Queue: 3 jobs
Job 1
Amino acid sequence: MAVRELTITGGEPFARTDILDIIGLCLDNGLRLTVLTSGIVDSALLGHVKQSDVELRLSLDGASEETHDYIRGKGNLKEVLRIAQELRSHSTIRLSAHFTVNRLNLREICRIPSLLDRMEVRELVVSVIKPAGRAKEHPELLIEPELLPLARERIATISSNRRIRWRRYGDKNWSALACPAAFTKCGITPEGNITPCVFLGDGFVGGSIREYSLEHLWRHDDKCRRLRNLSINPDCLGCARLGTHNGGCRARALYHSGSIEDRDPYCCAIRQNSMNESLGVHDG
Ligand code: SF4
Ligand code: SF4
């Protein structure tokens, strides 16, 4: 299958007692590996990971204890800072942070660079919360489509900070149809089932790698095939963003309309915002 890259996320990957075996196996097979962690890392485990060629990415959900700990649990931001400083003393490890923008931390985005300074972290990945997993049970965290342009504006302020190398958490190589799910990426659930994208939820969980090879599932599983066979939404035909965004994110479309084939309202909100800007239309 020529898989080049693997991201291990959670829950908390370091809660697994066999995480070092998994990391070792990935590295032995030449995978570029990223492990996301909430900072609940056992120091003994850390002693082994520091020698590995792994990107360890610390999750940030706010620049203040109030917002970050609201999601991660009391005292977690302090723990993240402690772990970052501890890891920094090991030069071999590649340390980054993953900041997920949500409704509560929107106004804290400008404080993220100074938080990273304290952590001595220079690499940042930024994503916007998706209506999936636990976020679905906390609608107060979700960013409405209309707020997305504002979120993007604030995220862009990070780019003016020269000390930070940042990138959007993005799907490389958007496919010819809609998104890379089942074209250039897939997910594996903690139970070992394939899914075209982990953000699509339970309805898109396919067969198990305990029964079939990953290659077999990738090629033949119904859920993957379904994503590959989606047609372009007729409402997107003729849209200027069709060439680059092709209807947007399928997970967002599914959440907002119940149909995986619908338009992504966030994609439309960005289009509307650029149209307003080019026409000189402003709110208020
Ligand atoms: S469904 Fe959304 S998050 Fe998942 S791969 Fe497609 S664009 Fe990315
Ligand atoms: S902006 Fe809306 S209509 Fe245009 S491609 Fe995106 S989802 Fe489709």
Note: The chain has eleven helices and eight strands.
Job 2
Amino acid sequence: MTSGSDIAARIENQAERLHVSIGAVCNNNCIFCMEEDREGRYVNNSAMTAERVRWMLESHTGAEEVCFTSGEPTTRPELPDFVTWARSLGYRRISVMTNGRRLSHLAYAAALAKAGMNRFYISIHGHTKKLHEGLTRTPDSFEQTVAGLDSIAKLKRFGVELHTSTVITDRNLPHMLDIYRFLRGHGVDQVVFNVMQANGRADTRRVRPSGTARRSSAASRTKRTRPANRPRQAGPATAWAERRAPLAKTSPAVATFAGTATERGP
Ligand code: SF4
């Protein structure tokens, strides 16, 4: 059994992991999205120019992993180029946190893998259309995300890893085992369930078993403040490096941002 000190030592010795926020928009509309301020995200992440991405990558060579994230990274046309840069700079693990919808186009998924992307974290929140789309509030997102899983599963023979992230809410909590079996059946290597963190929409809403959302009475009573080590969503383009366990894009649950460094590029 792993002790607390073992875990602490493992985290302490963990190599740096670089997150680069490149997605200024998202084609989903999740009820719990931590990026509720879509306009702020657009302003912030639009400032992450290709030049800044390059600067970030060059500044952190030696990191264990570079992960393209925030908003929906696959909406960024230069993503394959960024992956190529990362590979040429020697990053061994190159990943993306995505809702997976664009990966339903196998040719696009294969182009990313060919450029050097070798780990995909795909957000999926249910094993049925009703459950998933009730949370993403985006028609047909279930079919596309599942097709995205299947695309990456086909690429696993080239060394690509397939992980998923499921944000647990009142609605999908009773179906965790079904979700796990469903995802494993689609070739997922690592299924991660994340506890929702009170950020963005999750700070102002919560999901009831009936499937409707309402203002959280706790949220309305309590004035919340941004943790000092968490980057603001609006403002200059940011990226952050961290030493900690893998972070799911949509989720927030593990996002303690220990060791966060907010950086400004050129
Ligand atoms: S949680 Fe992720 S997939 Fe959902 S709206 Fe937010 S950024 Fe998009």
Note: The pocket of iron/sulfur cluster is lined by residues 26, 28-30, 33, 35, 71-72, 99, 123, 249-250 (CB under 6 Å).
Job 3
Amino acid sequence: MAPDGFVYYSRMCFSCPAFGPTACMMTSSPWSARRAFLLAAGAGAATPVLAQVDVGAASSLRKLVSAPALEQAAARQYQQMLSEAQARRVLVSRSHPSLQRLHAIARRLMVYAAPWNERARQWRWEVSLIDSAQINAFCMPGGKIVFYTGILEQLRLSDDEAAMVMGHEMAHALREHARERLAKTQGTHLALRLGAQLLGLGDLGQAAASFGGQLLTLKYGRSDESEADLVGLELAARGGFEPAAAVSLWRKMGQATGRQSGGPAFLSTHPTGPARIRELTQNLPKVQGLYEAARRGKAPTG
Ligand SMILES: [Zn+2]
């Protein structure tokens, strides 16, 4: 703790030790369906065999870019952002209830991440909270999740709705949308200019590093957004969060559009509208059973 009483260290790492007890829950009988889901996972950013939503295969173009190089660049960018937030005293304390709440949500979602991307088994998931009025949240390649207090407070998100935001952002990382974007903008150029033999860690590491700053402000295409909505919806449902919250979340987003202060952030990169809400609504029945099974399998609290 700093002399002024402000706890600067707010990150929480979800690597193996903290992960253990949660993973153990999957070996008990109510969780057998989930274990089957996990076991059915394919390699890379594949669609799990038992997935309920239909998003097809991830773009093969992304393979032009080294995933480890991009994840390393993202980790550096994340650390730099945390350092800056710490210096400006806007990095929310790990003990703060809002960050604790986000950690609890993250734990319930990330156990279902690996079937969507084998690499996620090695990711060091982290969740940070920045004190800012901006409505914003993102997950960088490799599982570095950031929420701004503005999205929680201005939209008055319920746990279910916050889980939908988190699931959506985790899905962007799991489906490697940033890697795909980088491949489209820089990987292809490198391949043409330098030849395929140079598509190794060094050159693409450099490309990924130069791309680093953009990782925080990426604007994805409509199909990527649709994928993130559906994969996020399924992650959240498996985690025991009510699917209908996806619809109420995007209605709130729609209402907030136009009255956002301090920069457009999330809302400018996530246009909401009837099509988005309609697609989510159509997919609710597909994941409702997962949600209900998760609720039944959950140990009673209180
Ligand atoms: Zn998105």
Note: The beta strands are 126-130, 137-140, 144-148.
